[in-house]
Design a protein that fits this description.
Elements lengths: L25 H9 L1 H10 L8 H4 L28 E10 L3 H15 L8 E2 L11 E4 L4 E4 H16 L7 E12 L5 E9 L1 H5 L8 H16 L11 H5 L3 E8 L4 H8 L15 E3 L1 E6 L2 E6 L6 H10 L1
Antiparallel strand pairs: 1-3, 1-4, 1-9, 2-7, 5-6, 5-8, 6-7, 9-10
Helix pairs in contact: 5-7
Protein name: U6 snRNA phosphodiesterase
Organism: Colletotrichum musicola
Main location: nucleus
Length: 314
């Protein structure tokens, strides 16, 4: 896949004859200097956007060790130790916040960090190279697939996600904030709880997250088929609906109770109310197996019968 689809006809045939320079009026020089930044920004915005698949090509960081080394990861340890011949895997929905959303999230995390005193809060928003990181909603626990399992797992997951009753792409919005203690490690995560904004207005029938629950059911079934533990095993609809979240920071252990209570109220503050109005577009589910990321698009299954019939006729 080409990174950017520029025409190859813009060739070097013109290199030997650079365009003639034009003399600018005296008044234009000052105007150019004053508006230089704006002109540069306009020029950048004219570039075609990178395709969504570009993010999947560079979804992994460079490995600097062949063994698990917590000192390379801020003291973190794998919940599932790495074994030769096994592929660390994860199923999730990916979200790339806009520049303005990223900036507000950074301010939001910094404000909460100030409530924790000596306990360090590690943001999950920016890489070591100071570039924004994608965020995600998990649809599986950390998985460990054998080489013999990984192709079958991806095939089954693709079929299951395609048949999930989501009605095609949908939207999510942040609905709350809090700390979540990981059952698999000693870390606590600062999370934004997410829900379908339309379903949240009338959650009496289908709950607040009908699409996420449908996807989770499919993903858990595939995981258990390959001897993996399911995610969110609670049977009550309301408990599962409130479990879906986006992690934005972490700390070792839960913060003091008073800090947690203050955190719960942060989205009510005027400067952070806009976060609840954000919409996260969900058009597919991603499966990361080792360093390979595969996007599985959602489809509207209301037309699935006719589509399947057409396929059989072909």
């Amino acid at each position: 896949m080409a990174l950017v689809d520029y025409s190859s006809s813009d060739s070097a045939s013109e290199i030997d004859q650079p365009p003639a320079k034009r003399r600018k009026p005296a008044g234009a020089v000052a105007e150019t200097k004053a508006g230089g930044n704006a002109a540069s920004q306009d020029g950048d915005s004219a570039l075609p956007p990178l395709p969504a698949e570009f993010h999947d090509l560079y979804a992994s960081t460079v490995r600097t060790s062949t063994a698990d080394d917590p000192t390379l990861h801020q003291g973190r340890k794998r919940s599932t130790p790495h074994m030769v011949g096994h592929w660390p895997s994860h199923v999730y929905i990916e979200w790339h916040p806009s520049a303005s959303q990223h900036a507000l999230l950074c301010t939001f995390v910094a404000e909460i960090a100030s409530l924790l005193g000596s306990k360090k809060l590690n943001a999950l928003l920016t890489s070591e190279l100071h570039t924004p990181l994608p965020l995600h909603v998990s649809l599986s626990r950390p998985l460990s697939l054998t080489t013999a399992q990984k192709d079958g797992f991806l095939s089954d997951l693709t079929s299951s996600v395609a048949s999930a009753a989501t009605g095609g792409p949908f939207k999510l919005s942040p609905r709350g904030v809090g700390f979540f203690k990981s059952p698999d490690s000693d870390r606590a995560f600062l999370v934004l709880r997410v829900a379908n904004p339309a379903a949240s207005q009338d959650s009496t029938k289908n709950g607040k997250n009908p699409q996420l629950r449908a996807l989770l059911t499919k993903c858990n079934a595939v995981a258990m088929r390959f001897d993996q533990k399911p995610l969110y095993q609670a049977r009550a609809t309301e408990l599962i609906d409130d479990a879906f979240h986006v992690s934005i920071a972490w700390s070792f252990g839960l913060p003091p109770e008073e800090a947690c209570l203050q955190t719960y109220e942060m989205l009510r503050r005027p400067e952070f109310r806009a976060i609840r109005e954000w919409e996260i577009d969900v058009s597919g589910v991603k499966a990361k197996i080792g360093n390979v990321v595969t996007n599985v698009p959602l489809r509207d299954n209301s037309n699935s019968k006719s589509a399947d019939a057409d396929t059989l006729l072909e």
